[in-house]
Amino acid sequence: MTKQALIVVDIQNDYFPNGKWPLSGADAAADNAARIVAAARDAGDLIIHVRHESIGETAAFFLAGSEGAQIHQKVLNRPGETVIVKNHVNAFRETDLKATLDRHGIEEVTVVGSMSHMCIDAVTRAASDLGYRVTVVHDACATRDLEFNGTLVPAAQAHAAFMAAFAFAYASVLSTDEALAKHGEVRVSA
């Protein structure tokens, strides 16, 4: 069994066009995430799908039991693949994500999904803090425009700022093509 896992975070219907909280570039990011998922399946890596369900009737999106809270068809889990349901930004908080990784002897995780500035940020930093080697596939992640104190932060800039922060101290940040090439090299040399 490999020591690598893929964590697919919140690629859910509400983040796509016609959803309740559409992201900039959600389709392109999901297409790239699907390529990473396919490679992980081919390699026999552990794949963990993380699905957010909002608690409370006032939630803007990912309402429990809604179509919007379901995993998008582009990366839909297969039978036997782990699905972890979370209710907080950090996928490690009040879930069995760490226990699942540890039970499988995982040392390195690759992260794809949404949103770059929230759940990807939280899981990346937490995984690094917990001692896992982390890779974030930047073009397999998506976010949306942000606003702070009257200043609009376009999605591309918000995404770039978070990827730069990860690369500085938390993770290797690779494109889909780079991640696939690295994954292939690891398999050939293993």
UniProtKB/TrEMBL annotation:
One of its GO terms (molecular function) is hydrolase activity. Keywords: Hydrolase. SUPFAM superfamilies: Isochorismatase-like hydrolases. The keyword Lipoprotein does not apply. Residues 5-162 form the Isochorismatase-like domain. The keyword Hydrolase applies. PANTHER family: ISOCHORISMATASE HYDROLASE, PEROXYUREIDOACRYLATE/UREIDOACRYLATE AMIDOHYDROLASE-RELATED. This is Putative hydrolase.
